[in-house]
Amino acid sequence: MWRWLIPLSVVPVLGLLAYGFRVNPHDIPSPLVGRPAAPFVLRTFDGRDVSLERLRGRVVVLNFWASWCYPACYEEAPALERSWRAYRDREVSVVGVAIQDQPDAARKFIADFSLSFPNAPDPDG
């Protein structure tokens, strides 16, 4: 009986390892990828309205961020700004949505990274 205990305990560990190596930790499955977004209108920090309807026909990158989101949001902000500047004349729009953030902190984040694409607070918090 004891001679089978070690081999039998190794099998589940090997199975878990095999599963772990197959799964991409950066892959976030979503039933919404590739589907049309629900219509929305957002009031940006500088008082303009951004609506999905006005962006129809363009590729829209909708980025959710927060000033307290470190390091991810701090790393992606400059890349999004560069992408926006490079592709805005090629039917690509970037819209930032600050979630669960204080308005002053969000405005400072926008200024610190010189974000020129539209950014709005999440109306639901």
The separation of the N and C termini measures 60 Å
Number of strands: 5
CATH class: Alpha Beta
CATH architecture: 3-Layer(aba) Sandwich
As for the CATH topology, it is Glutaredoxin
**Domains (count):** 1
Provide a quick synopsis of the model.
By secondary structure, the chain is an alpha/beta fold. Helix content is about 40%, strand content about 20%.
Explain what the structure shows.
By secondary structure, the protein is of the alpha/beta class. It has a single domain (32-121), classed as 3-Layer(aba) Sandwich (Glutaredoxin), CATH 3.40.30. Helix content is 38%, strand content 18%. The chain has three helices and five strands. It has helices at 2-22, 72-87, 103-112, and strands spanning 41-43, 49-51, 59-65, 92-98, 119-121. Strands 3-4-5 form a three-stranded parallel sheet. Helix 3 (103-112) links the parallel strand 4 and strand 5 (119-121). The protein is elongated, with a radius of gyration of 22 Å. The N and C termini lie far apart (60 Å). The mean pLDDT is 86.
